[in-house]
Amino acid sequence: MSQSVTEITVLPIASTSSLTDTSTKEGELWATSEETIRAANGVQSLYWSRWVENPEMVHLMINWESLQRHMDFRASPNFPAFEKNIISLTNAPPVMFHAHLTPHPPTKAFEAPVVEVITIYFHAGLSETEKEAYYKNFKNFMEQMIVDAKGLVAEAHGWVLEELETEGKKHKAFMCFIGWDSVDMHMKHRETDSFKETIHLLRDGTDTIEMHHVKFAEGASG
Q1: 197: Cβ–Cβ under 8 A, 6 or more apart, which residues?
Q2: Which stretches of 13-131 are assigned E, i.e. beta strand?
Q3: Residue 91 CB neighbours (<10 A)
Q4: Which of 37, 49, 134, 207 is most buried, by the most CB atoms less than 10 A from its CB?
Q5: pLDDT per residue over 111-145, tens digit each?
Q6: Can you tell me the distance from the alpha carbon of 55 to that of 83, in angstroms, rounded to the nearest whole number?
Q7: What is the pLDDT of residue 2?
């Protein structure tokens, strides 16, 4: 049986472009792009949001029945116009990749009021043994956080299928999406003894970690 997958796209789109106002050219293009995606065979749900910390960046998340369903869409007659519309909205090349998230679909995490998005980068030669060791530490970190963190709604996580480039180098990557009641609740948890005592489990063995927040509940969802 094919494994479900989440398509993750980072789009640099000027904050002055109103994607929700269909009376504007940008809003009309975005709405048309959404309609095209939602009609694609194998799409389960769609979410998008500007980053809280950097409104010039947009996350577009599409949950697919399988990676093949996404590849079929990219090969379909509808894709060239969709791609042209999306690229016309951006001011730099988009970055697209996939992850097998657990649970799938990650509905509870994505539909929380605020979502903490963590991308964890490792050296490109990361072995299966190293991946297993890191995942064990990650699970211990999350299990403790779920017990101790106030305002934590749900989480989803998984390995990225492709290598990602950051700081001029290729990396293996792991992603985690943690739903919170608010950004403030997340930041307060970072000040607790529990977080400070366990954060090494998330950081050990990594090259670098990037974190920001989004509000998928305020964007379009499935």
Answers
A1: none
A2: 43-50, 57-64, 95-99, 114-123
A3: 10
A4: 49
A5: 999 999 999 999 999 999 999 999 999 999 999 99
A6: 22
A7: 72
